[in-house]
Amino acid sequence: MNERIKNVGQAMNRIDGLLKVTGTATYATDYAIKNTAYAVIFKSAIAAGKIIDLDTSEAEKAAGVLAVITHKNAPKLNASGGIRGGALLQSPNIEFHGQHIGLVVAETFEQARYAARLVKVSYEKTDAKVDFEKHEKEAVTPKDKDRAEASRGDVETTFRNAEYKIEAVYDTPIEHHQPMEPHATIAVWEGEKVTLYNGSQIVNGAQNAAASTLNLKPENVRIVTPHIGGGFGSKGGQWANLILAAVAAKVVNRPVKLALTRQQMFNSVGLRQRNRQKIRLAATKDGKLTALAHETTTHCAINGEFVEPCGDCSKVMYDVPNSLISYRVVPMNIILPTYTRGPGKSTGSFALESAIDELAYQLKIDPIEFRLKNEPAKDPSNGKPWSSRAIVQCLKEGAKAFGWEKRKIEPRQNPQGNYLIGYGVAAGTYPARQRDTSATVKLTRNGSDVRSSIELAASDLGTGTHTILAQTAADALGLPINKIGVRIGDSALPPAAGSVGSVGAASFANAVNDACVKITDELIAKSGKQFFVRPTAAEMMASENINEFQTRVHAKPPADADKYSSHSFNANFAEVWVNDSTGMVKVQRFVAVTGAGKILNPKTARSQIIGGNVWGIGMALTEESILDSRWGNFVTRSFADYHVPSNLDIGSIEPIFINEEDTIPNKLGIKGIGEIGIVGVAAAVANAVFNATGKRIRELPITPDKLI
Amino acid sequence: MVNGKSMVKFILNNKTIESDLPAGTTVLDFVRYHENLKGTKIGCREGDCGACTILVGEINDDSVKYRSMTSCLMPLANANGKHIVTVEGINRPNNELTEVQRVMVDESGTQCGFCTVGFVMSLTGFFLDETEKSCEMAISSIDGNICRCTGYKSIERAAKRVSGRWSAVSGQKNSENNLDVAIKKGIVPNYFSEIKEKLVQLKQETNRPLTTDHRPLFVGGGTDLYVQRPEELIYASAENLFDDADLRFIEETNEFIELGASVTVTDLLVSPVMQKLFPNLYKHLKLVSSTPIRNMATLAGNFVNASPIGDMTVWFLALNASIVFNNNREIPLSELYLGYKTLAKSENEFIKMIRFRKDVQHFNFEKVCKRTFLDIASVNTAISLRVSSPTVKEEFPNHDKARAHAWATDTVIVDAHVSAGGVAPIPLYLKKTSEFLRGKEISDETIFEANEIIQSEISPISDVRGSAEYKRLLLRQLFIGHFVELFDFKPRN
Asked: Do residues B128 and B274 both lie within one domain?
């Protein structure tokens, strides 16, 4: 069996590469559908209150306009049907600045955009809660039980009596996902059925939410999303724009295309919330942690609660007898926050891993050694054994690859001309899970040419799902990879988990593998023969002269998976150069070592990790959304003002994978790598900035003004 | 032009197109919605992300010169008489890939793929333009493209690989026949060799710049106007100045350098006249926006946009440049600005020419922003100094810092012009500071006192690009930076 494995684990080119470099991959707005009308959304100019009057008469008269839809004439929808963030035009109430208040549908995009400006709105304003500093004190315990307080031992007494300790507050700003493809939908009705071409990380999730909100049966909603132009969480849950496209298409009785503008993206599809994290850490003189408290305060929407799990890393990273993880949240007039790459772990690790660095410095212990002294033998949060835990290897191999031994423990010891050079390290973790997923495998034979089609409602938002599934199926069926067709991104296919929370690869690939094993079993059974060496499905199709055969599975995680604690781990090493006169920081060199189980394709995996690292560097140095506390709007609402990293901003990045075999979380030993790449990155950069300058920046991003 | 409606005629990929759509329609919307060419993506409509990058070819000095541009900010009018190339225009038949496309796949330069075509077009453009074909310049050519998935490293590797292969065959230097080499190397298809002839023919039919009416809205490259008011511009009656040949020249007279108003930042970069005068031209101008925007943005456009922080405005203010309007009225650039976005210019006036004295001796430009590249400055500043010894320029060129330093300490400033952006409602010519510097020795005292005067001349506000206090501090540091850069002059604090 082993000699047949030749695709999984190989650094292969992505199979959708050709479509993407030639511009022929189809994204939501790329479908040429006859008679399409265009919808443009218009938004609230206040953050709280209600619409008193809404004059659409001029817009309705404008050239090409087919309909103007507002709360006054919108169809009744089920607002609790699973669409995130409200804004479904069901009432005149305004809960955040930029809430959708209507849309214009016209013959052309230009006509709709022009007419949208002609709508006159008058509001009754009420006091808006938009200033986090002002309302932080009103925060209460979240309703979400997972965000309830978790504690063990006695943090308060231990901390009070400790000789070596730090207490510090770490602030992270609002950030936006801003995938390169703005959210967009084409809605096409046929009778009571609607097809929605719409970027969806969770295909069946989008289908169910749309169906429930539109008061339809799920089988009457079809989501089509073969290629997604990035999502990073913003296309996980779905937002009002999806539904409004369907509503508009129903109203004008034509296909409708609705694309958000880049500016509208800032207040339409969720965001990463602003977090204020208080960390208390205590240790003995020789560096054994005795207490850890991680208390997060944040905001959520008026119409819904979402709290980033900032304390997750603190639950599992270190062996500490006294621990407290808590959350407080205050509803504010800001759009509902949502999952954003490395939710909770990226921001939480900034606080935790900065604090670890601070305490290590106080103890004059090397920060790697400090971490090694506090390695937990089992998951401290639940007492379960680790299925695998590569953190020690990550730290040690990373230190070697990076040249950590050259680092001086005292800051400002490495000036070069006008630059101060510093080294920093931080570790991270992300849970590994498999979720229920169905898959169909089809085999067809034409003479000696056997081909397979793999079908499931999985999604590929750029991660490489198409490619890893083709690799998995090729090996499991005994076929060359170019004989495998992968059909995903369509809710008409067998239901699957989503590309979220690093569960995609494990859920999809295990389902495909199971389906391929099952079809082989069935072909063998059908032949009635017995074999010493198990034949492949491809061989069976040929030897039994079968032209068409298919099967379907519903794959579940292994029964014992729950008895263990399964996580990916990483260690990040940053070298920064800080300009001593201007305070500008450049990450000159970055090494990320990851232990994430089986790496299905080192080429796509490396890209995933580097991409995550750059997200983390953006979080550390440039990304920040600024809210005008007078109006509640974002001042930063373009790529010119909201600074995602550009290509010349970053020096070299070297991803390294630890060879890890762990089949406890799932049969193929896949842990997922979409999220882990960003975890611990901002802390590594901040720790390096401290090592360079002696300045501890606890408020991201580390902009030049904070350093001079 | 008939009854205010005009025909636009150009070559789109491999076919000649005629359109009577409003001339203000963007090329992006035209190719996607009217030609159903969906490879060009809509990422931001503000020229910031590069997902809609196309190539624009026009005849220049008897050959077709191609430049990358963001189609979202380009009015159809500016396509008139040109070759517009979308990805469909470089794609090869039968699933074959161009050299650039192939390395992008091999190096994993694409993930979600939404930005990918923009990168492919920028890199393809790099091989067609006159930039030196080094790895460094290949990577610079994608400075206007944002990717949110790959972290750029794989794309940089792709850029390096394809430029490495190019130089292995053709040498790094730009060759006269880039287009021929590019065709031979499979970077663009064969039909590109026939474009020149077609453009010559087209030029005879479309030799007038497009005018749709007589209402005075003047559009240059469109890089600011299409961000600020796209809805209006589509139907607006506009005078498109971008292609007016009379407005695109760089000339050297006895005393002056004269520049047409529609000269782009890239035109400056590749101009031998400018390169001779400003040895650090590339270093300075690569901090200005991004490649596609530099290819489109005109000098006059930057001046009249009147951003308090316009890079080119600050640059030319320190050259003490003057501007000449279409009615031949001439004023110093520093007098164009009356207040925030208020200009000493009547409705019917547009800038025809910019000129500055060519005896530039020591010039420097500095800029600090939150993101090093592709960003609007927090503060920028430029300085131009002439110093006593008449032979100094030959004897102590800018790069010979050690000698320049030794000399600078007993040298007197004969003439000085200093400017700064981001520190007042207008791009600021620092009049008092400039006056103060004249006749002074380059010394700690001079720099210290000049900095005091600077602080009295500026009035920064706190905004998203930094607090007022921070901007004051930055300008102080950057002003010292001028002397460090030009004379390696380190003040003793």
From this structure: no
Class of A17-25+434-556 in CATH:
alpha beta
B110 within 8 A of B152, measured Cβ to Cβ: no
pLDDT of residue B467: 85
Q: How far is CA A474 from the centre of its chain?
A: 28
Which of A26, A647, A705, A706 is the mutation pick for testing B, counting most B CBs within 10 A? Answer: A647
A275-433+562-706, CATH topology level: Aldehyde Oxidoreductase; domain 4 (3.30.365)
Per-domain boundaries in chain A: 17-25+434-556, 37-126+180-230+235-267, 275-433+562-706
C-alpha A60/C-alpha B464 separation (Å) is: 38
B89: closest chain A residue by CA: A22
What single letter denotes the amino acid at residue B40?
A: T
Q: Which of B25, B151, B371 sits opposite A610 (nearest CB)?
A: B151
Over residues A541-585, the pLDDT tens digits come to 999 999 999 999 999 999 999 999 999 999 999 999 999 888 999
Q: CATH no. for residue B75?
A: 3.10.20.30
| Highest mean pLDDT out of A226-235, B132-141, B469-478 | A226-235
- Domain A37-126+180-230+235-267 falls in which CATH fold? Aldehyde Oxidoreductase; domain 4 (3.30.365)
For residue B407, count other CB atoms closer than 10 A to its CB. 18
- Residues in chain A closer than 8 A to B40 (CB atoms): 23
| Co-location of B178 and B271 in the same domain | no
Contact state of B477 with A581 under an 8 Å Cβ cutoff: yes
- CA–CA min distance A507, chain B (Å): 20
Q: Per the structure block, which two tokens stand in for B307?
A: 């951003």
Enumerate the β-bridge partners of residue A550.
A442
Q: Are A303 and A86 in contact (CB under 8 A)?
A: yes
B-chain residues near A14 (CB < 8 A): 105, 108, 110
d(CA B127, CA B100): 10
Query: Which has the closest alpha carbon to A636: B46, B380, B40, B51?
Result: B46
In the predicted structure, residue B392 carries a pLDDT above the cut 80: no
> What residues have CB less than 8 Å from A151, skipping those under 6 apart?
A323, A324, A325, A326
Q: In a mutagenesis test of the B interface, which of A16, A21, A577 is the best target, namely the one with the most B β-carbons within 10 Å?
A: A21
Domain shared by B130 and B258, yes or no:
no
Q: Number of structural domains, chain B?
A: 2
In-domain check, residue B371: yes
Chain B: residue whose CA lies nearest to A183: B43
B210 found inside a domain: no
- Asked, for residue B345, whether it belongs to a domain, the answer is yes
- Residue count (chain B): 493
Per CB-CB distance under 8 Å, the chain B contacts of A32 are 36, 38
pLDDT tops 60 at residue B212: no
In 10 A of CB B328, how many CB atoms?
8
Mutate which: A20, A201, A576, vs B, most B CBs within 10 A: A20
Tell me, yes or no, whether B238 lies in a domain.
no
Min Cα–Cα distance to chain B from A180, Å = 6
Beta strands in B216-374 (DSSP E): 218-219, 239-240, 250-252, 256-260, 322-325, 330-332, 337-339, 342-343, 351-357, 362-368
- Sign of the CA dihedral running B386, B390, B391, B395: negative
8 A C-beta contact, residue B300 and residue B313: no
- The pLDDT tens digits of the residues spanning B151-210 come to 999 999 999 998 888 877 666 555 567 898 899 889 999 999 999 999 999 988 765 555
Partner residue facing B473 (CB), from A646, A647, A708 = A708
Chain A with chain B: Cβ pairs closer than 8 A: 228
Cα nearest neighbour of A625 on chain B? B464
Query: Which domain does B339 fall in, by range?
Result: 245-487
The answer to whether domain A37-126+180-230+235-267 and domain A275-433+562-706 are alike in fold is yes
